[in-house]
Specification:
The protein has about 350 residues and is of the alpha/beta class. Helix content is about 40%, strand content about 10%. It has helices at about 35-40, 60-80, 95-105, 125-130, 170-180, 190-200, 225-235, 245, 260-270, 300-305, 310-340; strands at about 15-20, 45-55, 90, 110-115, 135-140, 185, 205-210, 235-240, 275-280.
Length: about 350
């Protein structure tokens, strides 16, 4: 029997949302963006990973400095969503803090960086970003960087099809330091070689914060069965995104519904098990389908999943429990690293 309101009371976490940059609607007002505080509250989405997105650019000193400066400025904007006067969300940089914000009925703001290009070739930048509270870094975006190969090379940046054969030597150092700092490794946008190597070498399970299943949509950004098997074997996560082109090739948002998202969830659950699947919409970065075009409509997806037989425990795992488990594992690895130091 279907729950009357299967979304009610869930600690729902969206693991990937972009912010308008350099200027955009206020995050506190119900406006044009897909995600703002009023929509999150209306959709009962308890926590959001807001990403400081840095597009890939030239890999020279000037390009790396500009990327780092942009990431820092965007992290300032994300922090401003949790003002000291309590009028907005709450900055939550641990699993316990996310749960405390939920208990207090406050929106949890979780900062992240999309594209390790923000580090340039300077490992010490990781420590500075860690002090800003980031919980994951997406290793690449479109285009290779100093860390790793991307799923989609950038011809305009003279990328070869593959440059490092996956992770570079620097990239392995980056992952080791991310582990020590408790920063999760996001393999969305990464080449398959990068993703497989990252899963093998990371002391904390890796995750794809916003990716779909390649068996259902043959796009180079999506995860194939071998990658899903690696995530299962290493305790990682695939957070299903709702970008139309990753759900179904050549589809428009208006052609798709929450059923298309649920198809990818079903496939991932059947391949990996319920402990390895979640949701990362990529709202305000291209995500959205008919019936789930903004955060206020999140319960529509929950209703579709419940209709397909997902029980309360499974819905909670998909909508945040699995991600919180990874956060705790990252925190445990960080604690162990501090003890050894």
């Amino acid at each position: 029997m279907m729950l009357t309101d299967p979304h009610d009371g869930l600690l729902a976490i969206d693991t990937h949302v972009d912010i308008p940059w350099p200027h955009g609607p206020s995050p506190f007002e119900n406006g044009a963006r897909c995600v703002d505080l009023p929509k999150l509250r209306a959709g009962r989405v308890a926590a959001v990973c807001f990403a400081a997105y840095v597009p890939q650019g030239p890999r020279d000193a000037a390009g790396h400095e500009e990327a780092a400066a942009r990431a820092s400025a965007m992290l300032d904007a994300i922090a401003a969503m949790a003002p000291a006067d309590g009028s907005g969300g709450v900055m939550a940089t641990t699993a316990a803090a996310v749960e405390a914000a939920f208990a207090a009925r406050k929106t949890a703001i979780i900062p992240a960086i999309e594209n390790g290009y923000a580090l340039g070739t300077d490992l010490s930048r990781l420590d500075g970003f860690a002090q800003r509270g980031i919980r994951y870094i997406t290793l690449t975006h479109n285009g290779h960087n100093a860390i790793a190969d991307a799923a989609i090379p950038r011809q305009d940046l003279n990328d070869a099809q593959a440059e490092h054969g996956g992770l570079s030597a620097f990239g392995r150092e980056v992952i080791a330091r991310m582990n020590q700092l408790g920063i999760l490794v996001d393999v969305s946008h990464a080449a398959k070689s990068t993703m497989m190597q990252a899963a093998e070498c990371s002391a904390t399970p890796v995750l794809a914060t916003h990716s779909c299943m390649r068996a259902l949509c043959d796009h180079p950004r999506n995860l194939d069965d071998e990658q899903l098997d690696m995530l299962k074997a290493t305790g990682g996560l695939a957070q299903v995104t709702i970008v139309s082109g990753f759900l179904r090739l050549k589809a428009r948002a208006a052609d798709l519904t929450v059923a298309d998202i649920a198809d990818h969830v079903d496939y991932a659950v059947n391949r990996m098990g319920i402990d390895h699947v979640g949701i990362g919409t990529d709202f305000d970065g291209g995500g959205g389908v008919h019936g789930f075009m903004n955060a206020a409509q999140a319960p529509h997806l929950t209703a579709e999943l419940a209709k397909r037989g997902y029980d309360r425990e499974s819905l909670q795992k998909i909508w945040g429990g699995n991600f919180l488990r990874l956060l705790r594992q990252a925190e445990a690895v960080r604690a162990e690293a501090r003890v050894r130091a």
